Amino acid sequence: MDRNRLEYTYTFGMDDEQIEDRLQRRETGVLALAADGSAYAVPVAHHYEDESLYVRVADDGSSTKMTYLEETDEACFTLYDVDSAGNSWSIVVTGSIRKLSRAESERFDDTAINESFLDLRLFGEDVEAIDLEIYELEAKSIAGRQTGEG
Description:
The protein is an alpha+beta fold and about 150 residues long. Helix content is about 20%, strand content about 45%.
């Protein structure tokens, strides 16, 4: 491989304000989980507030993601975009993930869930058979990179 012939673009770190802005404005990202040497990544609705990243998940009693959530010690959440001109950015958040306690989840009543998260996506399930759970990704690290001027 001749590295002199490869096309490339430099990326630069994003500052805290840029990262926070994108985490607050975007509604979905990819949550990566792992159990017993196997990985599972799933798109999820998220809400970022006061340096806390929350994800809303639906459980119909047979959800693969729920099994992985129970087994994952450290999760990874990725948010990214690439525009038509090829400019891009990405944010990666890693840390432990935990289900909110009953008392903690009370702040996410129906109204708050509707205001904080993208509409719930159902795939043929009966809405009455779905349990909604809110998890917090307790960030150990947050890194953002973007193309352009450093």
